[in-house]
Design goal:
The complex is a heterodimer of chains A (about 230) and B (about 350).
Chain A: E1 4-7, H1 13-21, E2 31-35, E3 52-56, E4 71-74, E5 90-93, E6 109-112, E7 125-131, E8 145-150, E9 166-169, E10 180-183, H2 187-200, E11 210-214
Parallel strand pairs in A: 1-2, 2-3, 3-4, 4-5, 5-6, 6-7, 7-8, 8-9
Antiparallel strand pairs in A: 9-11, 10-11
Chain B: E1 9-15, H1 24-34, E2 42-48, E3 57-62, H2 70-81, E4 86-90, E5 93-98, H3 102-112, E6 117-122, E7 125-131, H4 134-140, E8 150-156, E9 171-174, E10 177-185, H5 188-197, H6 207-220, H7 225-235, E11 238-246, E12 249-254, E13 263-266, E14 270-274, E15 290-292, E16 300-303
Antiparallel strand pairs in B: 1-8, 1-14, 2-7, 2-8, 3-5, 3-6, 4-5, 9-10, 10-11, 11-12, 12-16, 13-14, 13-15
Helix pairs in contact in B: 5-6, 6-7
Classes of the chains: A alpha/beta (about 230), B alpha+beta (about 350).
Chain lengths: ~230, ~350
Amino acid sequence: MFTQTVDLAKTSVRELNQRLHELDAERDEERWRILNPCGAHAIACGLRVPVTVEIEGHAGYYCAGMNQKATVIVHGNVATGVAENMMSGIVHVHGNASQSAGATAHGGLLVVEEDASARCGISMKGIDIVIKGSVGHMSAFMAQTGNLIVCGDAGDALGDSIYEARLFVRGKVKSLGTDCIEKEMRPEHLQLLETLLERAGSDARPEEFRRYGSARKLYHFQIDHASLY
Amino acid sequence: MIRNTSMCGIVGLFLKRSSLEPELGAWFSEMLICMSSRGPDSAGFAVYGDLAPPGKLKVTLQHSGLNFDWSLVAVALERRFRDKPSVDVNSSHARFLVKTDVQAIRDFLRENFPEVRIMSVGRRIEIMKETGLPESVVERFSVRRIVGSHAIGHTRMATESAVTTEGSHPFSTGLDLCLVHNGSLSNHNRLRQRLCRQGVEFHSENDTEVAAGYFARQLANGATLKQALEAGLGDLDGFYTFTVGTEDGFAVLRDPIACKPAVLAETDDYVAMASEYRSLANLPGIESARLWEPEPAVVYHWSRTESREVGASKQDLIRPATAGTWGRNGVDRKRSPSGKMLNPSPNV
């Protein structure tokens, strides 16, 4: 059951976030319910304790940004930058996500039940992202570490200028970005997929996916590769 | 230099049922005001209301002096065109119904009232725009009471330039056409030169006005609205979400990189577009609306078939064939082989 219900038609996002920031780190039974988000920005940003926050509706920009330890569940769509720079915890979106979902995030798990648009996982630094639908163009651009799993299709220029993040796509990849190539699926990758798909509540099978990653040609400047930059 | 800016908010509302037209002003006003945080410097809108009587044009004019005597213009117009124009003054703007053609009214105003600005010319369009918070602009023009089939609007945040009426959106792009823009164009100077050589007139240094002139030129050369917008994908360099108002509908286009936001909502009653969902959140029936993010480089266009005989015959009636990258729930992802949208609601 919910321990708190906050109606954003009556309470400001600033006040909500302040109250969430003041929660005691020792208590993890807190379960908050947020009503009438109406696309407001920065809902449940910067949480640092293992509270659960459920948002009943569509959230705006940077929802659950910088999250640590908290579980944020959105029963609706989210706008730009959901779980941006997340460090740990779980963000679960039961709708669609706009661009830059999980951008620059260092850890935690982001699950999107529907689609995520352009630049999903841009510059990701350790987060695990499971998109049950498709992702838009330039996803995993400059992705450094972590895992991006796409159960649907990927748009143009997947993994452009990628570092060491692992990308798994079940459907079609419209095109791969510079220095991103298909790679062999080894047993440890299937194991990883199985674990993450299970955590995300997906019934997709690991063997249906293909793996993509860095060709590592852009790491050091070589004149032969100048045209790739 | 007057430039468009990185921020700005845009909104569009297109009603599918004529019975809802009295609601347009109230619904649209809330959408526009909600985008104040994206653009607090000025606001403007184009509304498509009553059709001008046959042979007459609806001309919306602006004068910076609030006490300007519009009857001077009315008298001069009557003398020049031998027809008594009807005048409807709304704050700094005045709407005239004049028996004339576009070039004649432009020439007449340039010669006789050079300080009067033409906001729009057409059979249905009326453009009004002013500096100030969107809410004050809405109050000033009594937008809540406006009746019409559709409206598009813009809230501007100027970061590099003067905040002026002429730098505000929408920009009229020809008869009953107008454009609002979120983004910035990088090749507008070169393009302006090119268009000037082709005889297109510009009244500001604004990049959006160049895009407006570009689309008007394309249309004048016989392109459909869809073709004009698609040509823009090749010729306009920069960031943009455009919303274009036409006599019987509106269109949305995002650049291929799609940094500038847009969200669309459709119900049986309306199609609504906004930079952010916040602007749509208070529309009636939004809970059950189909919501999606328009795909990059895809032209979305809605129009009313019942008004298509009025000058819109050249335009394709296209519907979004794709749900964009959003919306798998209850969304029709079928695409016709040509990639065009099938008309999902033929009696719209």
